[in-house]
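To assess whether ligand presence alters the predicted conformation, the chain was also submitted together with NAP. Input:
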Amino acid sequence: MDLGLKGKKAIVCAASKGLGRACAISLAREGVDLVITARTASDLEKTAEEIRQMTGVKVIAVPGDISTEEGRAAALAACPEPDILVNNAGGPPHGDFREWDRDAWIKAIDQNMLAPIFLIKAVVDGMAARKFGRIVNITSASVKSPIPVLGMSNGARAGLTGFVAGLARQVAKDNVIINNILPGPFLTDRLRSGALAASKQRNVPVDEILAERAAGTPTGRVGDPAEFGDACAFLCSAKIGFIVGHNLLLDGGNFNSTIA
Ligand code: NAP
């Protein structure tokens, strides 16, 4: 299926590694020119060059912290009129909520709730005026099924989800379509570092922890970031204008329910 995206422009946040990188690659394969961001300039430029070599699209690497105003301004300056915005950032730390002070919460809310909201605010009216926009927010399965040690993720991302649910219905008439994708376990650095921490805590080899994660899903495996990227590209397609305000859970069937 031709997704109808050739020649479009996208900002993909937090895209030097993991799920953001996979989204950038899948969009580039559809002929989308990219602005990609991440804090570590060397990793980001490496990914940008890989995508250029792989697909031939234009890729501008904009280093910066997307949870800051400066980071967002730099991305928007490189692509003031995006057709597509993929919101993403690192996740908040694991822990016990009794140990988190106000600063820790503000950091999580800045990163996982306010950064996407302010980027949406910056681009949504232009998208509406041009009668095309696709926005995908990378959130987490924790929005649907809270993870006790990820209280800040559960909370901050739920705030974003509530906001998006309302806005998605206000802008759809102008062909600006906003959806969220909720990753379950995908094999990225974040999953590996979580597995490493669990391996130290439980004194169990890291491979065993990863095998447990895999066995815990009906697919018997963890997700491949490329699968996530392709789902993201699909939700950015010109052809999905009637899929509005959804929360697409990509967890290999882990969440047990009659209707997902
Ligand atoms: P990852 O492999 O650790 O990659 C994170 C990427 O984001 C890197 O490119 C990183 O580069 C960039 N980044 C982090 N914080 C940033 C910031 N403030 N500004 C700009 N770039 C930033 O993580 P991932 O697994 O792809 O996860 C992506 C998101 O999905 C996270 O929010 C994570 O919590 C969520 N999630 C992931 C899973 C999973 O199984 N992988 C499951 C549920 C939810 P720099 O460090 O250089 O900035």
